[in-house]
Amino acid sequence: MRVAVVGSGYVGLVAGTCFADLGHDVILVDNDERKLAALRAGQVPIHEKFLPELLSRHRGNRLQFSDNLKEAVRQSAAIFVAVGTPPTQSGEADLSFVESVAREISGGIDDYKIVVEKSTVPVYTSEWIRKIILRNGTDPESFDVVSNPEFLREGTAVSDFLFPDRIVIGCDSQRSADVLREIYAPLTDGSYYKRSDAIPQPDRALLPPPLIVTSTKSAELIKHASNAFLALKISFINAVASVCESVGADVNQVVHGIGTDTRIGPRFLNPGIGYGGSCFPKDVMAFRAVAREHGYDFSLLDEVMRINEDQRHRFLRKVHSALWTVRGKRLGVLGLAFKGGTDDIRESPAIAIVQALLQQGSQITAYDPAAVDHTREVMGDSIAFANSSYEAAHNADALLVLTEWEEFANLDLNRLRQELKYPIVIDGRNLYDPEVMATQGFTYYSVGRAACHPDGVPAAALKNGKKA
Ligand code: UGA
Question: What does 316-339 look like in DSSP terms, one character per residue?
Answer without folding.
Answer: HHHHHHHHS--TT-EEEEE--SSS
